[in-house]
Amino acid sequence: QLSNKRKTLPSDGEATDLHEDEFTVRIQPPGAESFDLQVSGQMSVSELHQVLMDHELTCHHSCFSLQLGGAVLDSAAKLGSIQGIQEGALIRVVEDSYLVRDVRVHLRHVRNRLRSLDPAGRSLSYLSLFTRAHQESDSMEKGSVSRSPPFYILPGCKERRLTPLQPIRDDWKPLQCLRVLNISSWNPPPGNRKLHGDLMYISILTMEERELSITCCTRGFYLNQSTAFNFNPKPAAPKILCHSLVDLLSQLSPSFRKNFAALQKRRVYQHPYECIRAPVQVCAWAAPPGDHSLDCVTSEETDGQVTNRLGLMVTLTFVQIRDWNEELQRSRELPRASLLERRHRDRRLFRINSDFVAAAAQGAVSMTEGNVMPLNPGEPPHLHVSVWNNLFFSQGFDMSDHYAPVGGDAAAHAYASVDTEGLHTLGTAVVDYRGVRVTAQTVVPGLLEKNLEQIVYGSNDNGKTVFTHPRFLELLGESSKSLRIQPHQVLDHSDSPVELRSAVSTVGIFGSDGRPYILDLLRTFPPDLNFLVSAEAQQEVPAACRSFGFPQRHRHGLASLRPQLVEAFVQHRWMKTCFFVVFFRSELFAKMASDDLGHQFATEKPEEPQRAAEQNRRNIFWKACENVGSMSDSHFDIRFNPDVCFPGVRFPSECLPDVQKQRRLLWEAAAFLLSNQIPALRDCLDHKAVPMDGATLTSVIHQRGVNVRYLGAVLKELDEMEEREKLSHVQRISISEVITRSAKHIFRTYMKDVEPAAFSAAVSHFLNCLLSSSSAPVPDSCSDELPSRRRSRRRRTQSDRANFPTSSLWAKLTSDDLWSRIKTEAEDYYHYTFKRCICVCVAELKKHNLQKISLLREMSIKTGIQLQLREYMFECRHKPAFSEDDVVNIFPVVKHLKPTSTDAAGLVQQAQLAAQRGFLRAGLDLLGQALTLFSSVCGILHEDVSKCLRLLGRLRYTLGENDDALILQEKAALISERIQGTDHPQTVQDYTHLALYFFAGGRLSTSLQLLYRARYLTLLIIGEDHPQIALLDTMLGLVLHALMENELSLKFLQNALTLTSKYHGAKSLKHAHSHHVLAIVYEIKGELQLALNHEKEAHILYKNQLGESSDSTKESSEYLQRLTDQGAILQRAVRHIAQLGAKPVLFFWQLPNHPVILHQLNLTCGITFIPPR
């Protein structure tokens, strides 16, 4: 809503140019056959170079140039701008001479290829394990393959297994090509060898246990005669020179040649989306134990960057420092007039932002671990600032969520989202690592220089001295409209009025590059008066706020309203304005009728009634705007003054009435949040939004403009709802979120006192206090502790053994202490009071039906903890659940801006509107254009690409094009797994819809396995008491019914009936559908009486909800009559047999009908087929 979206969609001509921009060229690699490759005119030559490095036919090359007609192509040029490149053009891959940097790039590339199938260190995907492994069983006869699920998936099972989260994949089994690939100790080459072209030496140990010493020269790689203790750079037999290290090793080692070929085949067998590197890697919160191996490339990259005493990074020759700020600002200054220009600009911004986020995370980790010298070493550690890799790092000294997306982080990116031309902001990322919050920003050119003119706009001393500048007033004028910021005046240090168009704390400076920059954007959005307690505020508090117990004192003064809340409030005020206009106009007409003004107008001149009517119209609109708080009398314009409640800011006397008006407007916005937006969570009753974990719940409340700190108010509203039973899953997730977020706050403070050698012991002890049922969890002694050299183990006293680590402050934490602090934190920060004192965590968790495995997942994701993938015994009272060996790693948790294509986002919205109106083909065309734009800007692995594929698959399925829908949905599921996580709720949704498409395609066994996987993930995330389980169990029951597993089918369908009654209501259509499905299964099973009973219940519900004339009621009535007739026939046959003593007659019941079951599955998933227009 804050982004500068285009008011019009791309024209038909621009969309046509977008598709015509793609063409096919022919690539001629050295010594191999040519092949075709589809490219885009906007693709640069360097991007084509990277594509060829990943292609299976040219993957062993990295140092080459591309030539067209004998001319070398410029790496920065766009393919579309090069003369001669057209459909069918031949581009030759020509090997180039190596430099030292090229050799290191080649080694890194070879290392990546050898480890391309290693799951460690990359985003995971397991979809192909279920779609390919069961492809053969789909073609086998029904009943020949076991359809039973694992016991921990069955309804009613309370055991939650963790190890199935990452099943074993055969194609991930290690396929070792080399034992060791390392940089030789003979480096660097001596001067005389440099004159012969030697660049580097590497040592290799092959699978045949043969030691090889390889020389990297300008022409390629060859085997030399050096050994570990004898340097002899002369070529050894066989004297072979290869431009690629892979080609050389293939000739020297038969095992390498065989295994590398097998490795390439495995890569070809994998889905392409499994091999592409994700822009941002998703680290799993649980990982199997892995072996650490030699890695020369990572070692060189780690050693290649050191820091000097000033904290500036000193770089060796092969590492290049990037000017992040210059790259970012130049990308923002690119032209944006046409669609192709905007696509190029958006792509540049996305890629630079992805690289910046990776560098920010790496720098924050280095800073936290003490590997970067601060610029102010004399200050306390929490005030340290550092410069690393041209990035500026500072710690979030207040442990509260200053920079959380509810306030500061969103504000930090607000102006970047508005994207005002000429106004520059810094690249910003917030990193949480080991309990420390670090803010990373690009460096303003010249900011660290003393001779640079400092602040020219705003104030950096809480309003004591305030500056303004006409250039910034001009630039902020446009953005203030989008951000709903009211231009206002404040008094400076000399009591002179100063005009501002932003918060007073927002400062503007001119960098040494001449660009205007704005900084310190924390107070961009309006303050939230519900969390600002002051003496004068008590008289202004609306009744809606007081009913919820507000205002409440918050931990910091940065509480602000979300932009979604601001837009919803403005929309609400616009509707109110329209109401007032109608009301005042009706009053005016009534007055005119009573005063007989019509006769008076008739006696006056013709122009006077027109002027009077126009004046009346203006007066009506002026009164309406005045009633809703508009800052303009002539038009509707709601804006907020962010400095109204800022301490230390003084306003001119003539502005005080307007300041009071702004205070009232802020209170009305705060009351609107409580009285309108929080009750709007009733939308979850329609199950349009079904949160499954903390992340999805946060997304739901954020969409309504509700901050996470209102969780206490949300829970209070849920308690008072009549339908609270139907929203019990939302209440349960909210309580879980309060507990885990409070525990995260405590974890930050807890980790501050931990020495580096005890990190794993401290983390495991914290988790034991949080989740273990052990009566008194005691931290393990450090397994790496070494005994003193002067004191034998026998002579060490008990106090000496207990000195480490139990003497540390963190080791004194107990379970009761932790849960007592969680209770206090929940009251102070989220204003939620647990009804009973939390003395033991088990009682509170059982009371709210919370799973410990779900809390562990939430806690690990929020703090970046990675645990060993094994089964944890939470209920064991004799042994703690966690040990220090269970803590595998701690990853940085990064919050950052996610740029995308605004043109493509507009196309998606239009496509959804077209589909809702029945124009499905038009929706497909629009989604195809959006998918092309998103893929070009963000790459394949992106949330927006997954969304487009998901919508395209749904439309294709609705149109009956199931094969295309299956391919599209499979891609969407793969992307969700890799960029959001294998156990993310969106992954569960994608698995569910993919199972439906597989069933429609006749692959029943694959559909069943996907549903089993989706149910397992849902059980792990939230447990069995959830609406998603009702949907999955209904689908599982129908699929099992189609496979003639009726006994197993009934288990799932009966559980679905119970959950449907709870979450949808016993009188809902969903409940009627559950009864109908059970009747179908019981009929096939031969239990006609049970089938008849369930169908009677369904018929009553359909009749009461839809009426006698509805299609559902008629179908139920016909089916009920058929069941009645079958029952009557059966009873007559039984009586006839009993009377005459005849032989029993076998009744053959009808087999499951695939179209009928598919129709029921579609109804379960909410898919209705409508005729396309």
UniProtKB/TrEMBL annotation:
GO BP annotations, alphabetical order: glycerol metabolic process; intracellular distribution of mitochondria
Ranges where the record places region Disordered: 1-22, 774-800
Record-given protein name: Clustered mitochondria homolog
Record domain DhaK: where: 1-152
Domain of life: Eukaryota
Keywords of this entry: Cytoplasm
Gene Ontology molecular functions: glycerone kinase activity; mRNA binding
InterPro entries: CLU-central (IPR033646), CLU_dom (IPR025697), CLU_N (IPR028275), CLU_prot (IPR027523), DhaK_dom (IPR004006), GSKIP_dom_sf (IPR023231), TPR-like_helical_dom_sf (IPR011990)
Residue ranges of every copy of the Clu domain listed in the record: 298-532
Taxonomic source organism: Poecilia latipinna
